[in-house]
Specification:
By secondary structure, this protein is mainly β. It is built from 3 helices and 35 strands. Belongs to the glycosyl hydrolase 43 family.
Length: 486
């Protein structure tokens, strides 16, 4: 028998400790590459009543977090050495709205950036005497710690068109810094569009802004609103991906995406291609509604890209969504498709975020369910078919169970030696069939293997790409029963 992993060791593996060793297990040479982006998990929600979240990982080892507060009256900051730590980190108000004039109302969507050795916060604000005169503004801090440092108002970002404008974000591509934001142009029509311009300083644009997205599709105009807003940029493999939010800020709210080559002229609308539909949207099965206004950060080990967003845990809202305070900050891992594009999957259920399990000897194949049968397969679509939440075993705390991400309450279980994803019926038989002992990988101790709880000596393994629970005797058997968390 192989030694069982402790709960701490299992969680350490999930957190991405690919180099972990296990007492009494000979690591031996690995025959498949340990994933470059090992598993990482968080527990949602990160922050209640915090919308439009922005989490920035700095070189000082801290994550900095800011978001819109329901009172729309101030800008707050938290910091922690881990993303999860932001949940309990103390929150400091670093700036408060003006009593009169500009920046006197609707303090929305702050973002914190570090540019050329200084801190900057971009935010939108209305005027005290005209709360819907929303415009973008910038604060600057030269201190090492932006929470204790002094913030200076750099003023409004001057845009050629003096109209409703918000959600400014900044990013650099090939040494050039850009600003992107949402704005209404009465000559174009109602609602807000996405614009981009070059920057000559962290608070100044230069040249003529270019509209790169206009909400025209039904998924961008649902709920009676014509909305493209909240641009956010992530770059990978020579591509620039700009997500944005669309439709009314209720359960219709969703994310779309624009894609451009990093070598293209980003100031040309023709360089950007829009997704045919939303890339992230409400999901009734996981009770997540209106996900959007996202940003991006990275995991603690720097190996995983993390989606930061807000949503609500219920669909129906009484009154205006803007008056509902319960948008909350959430995070989950981003996966990357074989074609180099991001796959955001679905907004996962509250609680522990799921993992994926890749095959040791078929590294491009993941455990997934298909018509409830468990198998391994490459290029899984939808992504959530290959995501499982590792929870305390239904048969007891010394075991683990793997719960489907897109079918909450459904678990991997064996039946007649085959592995299925089925709904927990509450019986002791199901609990036993759906519980496993997590052990160091039988073919590579950096991986993980799952021994059946009620059929000791039998492990989850793939055979002809289908998952079975079988006794193992050969090196091939052990390879088939070894997986990596991703």
């Amino acid at each position: 028998m192989r030694p069982a992993l402790t709960r701490r060791t299992v969680l350490g593996m999930i957190a991405g400790s690919a180099a972990a060793t296990f007492t009494g297990v000979s690591a031996g040479p690995a025959h498949a590459a340990v994933p470059a982006s090992p598993g990482v998990t968080y527990t949602n929600t990160i922050a209640e009543q915090r919308a439009d979240p922005h989490i920035f990982k700095h070189t000082d080892g801290f994550y900095y977090f800011t978001a819109t507060v329901p009172a729309y009256d101030r800008i707050v900051l938290r910091r922690a050495t881990t993303i999860q730590g932001l949940t309990s980190a103390p929150e400091t108000t670093i700036w408060t709205k003006h009593a009169t004039g500009e920046m006197g109302a609707h303090i929305w969507a702050p973002e914190i950036h570090f540019i050329d050795g200084k801190w900057y916060i971009y935010f939108a604000a209305g005027a005290a005497n005209d709360i819907w005169r929303i415009r973008p503004y910038v604060l600057e801090c030269t201190a090492a710690n932006p929470i204790t440092g002094t913030w200076t108002e750099k003023g409004r970002i001057a845009l050629p068109l003096d109209t409703f404008s918000l959600d400014a974000t900044t990013f650099a591509v090939n040494g050039n810094r850009y600003l992107s934001w949402a704005q209404n142009d009465p000559a174009v029509g109602r609602g807000t569009n996405i614009y981009i311009a070059r920057m000559s300083s962290p608070w100044t644009i230069t040249g003529t802004p270019v509209m790169i997205s206009r909400p025209t599709a039904s998924w961008e105009t649902a709920g009676g609103e014509t909305v493209n807003e909240g641009p956010a940029v992530i770059q990978r493999g020579g591509k620039v991906f700009m997500t944005f939010s669309a439709s009314a800020t209720d359960a219709n709210y969703c994310m779309g995406m624009l894609t451009a080559s990093a070598s293209a002229n980003l100031l040309s609308a023709s360089s950007w291609a829009k997704s045919a539909g939303p890339v992230f949207a409400s999901n009734a099965a996981t009770s997540q509604y209106g996900p959007g206004h996202n940003q991006f950060t990275v995991s603690e080990d720097g190996k995983s890209d993390i989606l930061v967003y807000h949503d609500r845990s219920y669909r129906d809202i009484s009154g205006s969504p803007l008056n509902d305070p319960n948008r909350r900050t959430r995070v989950q891992k981003i996966y990357w498709k074989a074609d180099g594009t991001p796959d955001f999957g679905i907004p996962v259920a509250d609680g522990l975020t799921p993992i994926r399990l890749s095959s040791y000897n078929f590294p491009d194949r993941f455990i997934r369910h298909w018509e409830y049968r468990a198998k391994i397969e490459p290029n899984v679509s939808p992504l959530a078919d290959s995501q499982f939440r590792l929870v305390t075993g239904l048969a007891g705390s010394s075991t683990v169970s793997l719960e489907s991400a897109n079918f909450p309450g459904y678990f991997l279980r064996h039946k007649n030696s085959a592995v299925w994803v089925e709904k927990n019926d509450g019986t002791s038989l199901f609990a036993g069939d759906a519980s496993f002992t997590a052990r160091a990988g039988l073919a590579d101790s950096a991986g993980i293997s799952y021994e059946s709880y009620n059929l000791p000596g039998r492990y989850i393994r793939h055979y002809d790409y289908l998952l079975q629970v079988q006794a193992l005797s050969t090196a091939t058997d052990r390879a088939d029963a070894t997986f990596y968390t991703q």
